[in-house]
Amino acid sequence: MASNDLYKGLAERLNYPPSEHLIKILKKMATEQEAAILLELPAAPAQLAQKFFLTETDVNKKLEEFMARGLSVSTSKGAQFVREVTQLHDASLASAEKYVDAELLDLWKEFYDKEWRKHLGEEYGKMQRPFCRVIPAWESLADSNQLSQADIMPEENMGEIMRGAEMIAVVPCSCRRPLRNCNAPLEVCFQFNKWADYAVKRGSGKRLALDQALEANALAEEAGLVHMQPMMTSSLSIICSCCADCCALIDPGVAYGTVKNALIKSRYQPVIDPEACIGCQECLDRCPFIAIEMEKYPQWKKLKGALIADNCFGCGVCAVGCKAGAINMRAVQAA
């Protein structure tokens, strides 16, 4: 098979329209022989060894390397080339540093900026149900004078989530790593239990003790990152912490007005006390969902923060950043 046909074959399996930018990424990530092997998966190592004139030992090493580089995933039938662009993006860009060089980062950024961002924003608009939910920043709930701590459910409490996990790992953020549109910390995307074990084994994740995980979580919240949990499984798996500048869900979803199709709001919203508000506009800058505006009140000279309730996803980022203590979270839906 000709070289270009190999990479076009891989691209077709990723369920994405024809794209020269995606082909560039695939050519960077896999040699022609590797592309040919990936197209054969799933297949027995002995079969691959015979077809490509390799030893079974070499084939097994290559299959392990594919997993480490984010090119394949483990299935009941054996190693399988990743199923879609998002999976390639998330797995490859969360890989160990030795597999993610500056050229690869630049290629992913070019792909995102020139076409994938628009594609994602439009695709979210077609969704019949969201695939991810917001978990509010724990600090925003813990410090609220509008809440009884007994009313907060365990699945809304990042501390309780982490205390209940058998294993926790952290991986580099696959969105912020290539885009570099902000200075937020990278290692604040969490994986749990068997997902954490998988991340550690493939070399992409670092195992965290509970105190380390809680510290990383606090760092994410102070940086204004939104906790989001993909609903791919009923068990605890992944919680991403990302920003409006780089997140492949929030950024295109907000830009194209389709974020509500892809993301479920938490059951909380902020209450902004205009009397306590000092008009610093920190909440305006931190809000990822354009849910806060500055409003003029006749009794004050300064503009004050005001909530646009329909836009709010209850992430608590504004409350964490309010040094004046003018923002408190309250429940707007029953548990």
Verbal overview:
The protein is of the alpha+beta class. 42% of the residues lie in helices and 16% in strands. It has 16 helices and 13 strands. The strands form 4 sheets. Strands 6-4-5-8-7-3-9 form a 7-stranded mixed beta sheet. A two-stranded antiparallel ribbon has the order 1-2. A hairpin with a 7-residue loop joins strand 7 and strand 8.
Strand content: 15-25%
Shape: elongated
Helix content range of the residues, please?
A: 40-55%
State the total count of DSSP E strands.
13
Q: Would you list the SSEs in sequence order as H and E?
A: HHHHHEEHHEHHEHEHEHEEHHEEHEEHE
Question: Can you summarize this structure?
Answer:
The protein has 16 helices and 13 strands. The chain is an alpha+beta fold.
Highlighted features:
single chain, 335 residues, alpha+beta, 13 strands
How do the strands and helices of this protein lay out in sequence?
Elements lengths: L2 H11 L6 H10 L2 H9 L4 H8 L3 H14 L2 E4 L2 E4 L3 H9 L8 H23 L7 E4 L2 H5 L15 H6 L4 E4 L4 H4 L9 E4 H9 L4 E3 L1 H13 L3 E5 L7 E5 L7 H6 L3 H4 E2 L3 E5 L9 H5 L5 E4 L8 E4 L9 H5 L5 E5 L4
Parallel strand pairs: 3-9
Antiparallel strand pairs: 1-2, 3-7, 4-5, 4-6, 5-8, 7-8, 10-13, 11-12
Helix pairs in contact: 1-2, 1-3, 2-7, 4-5
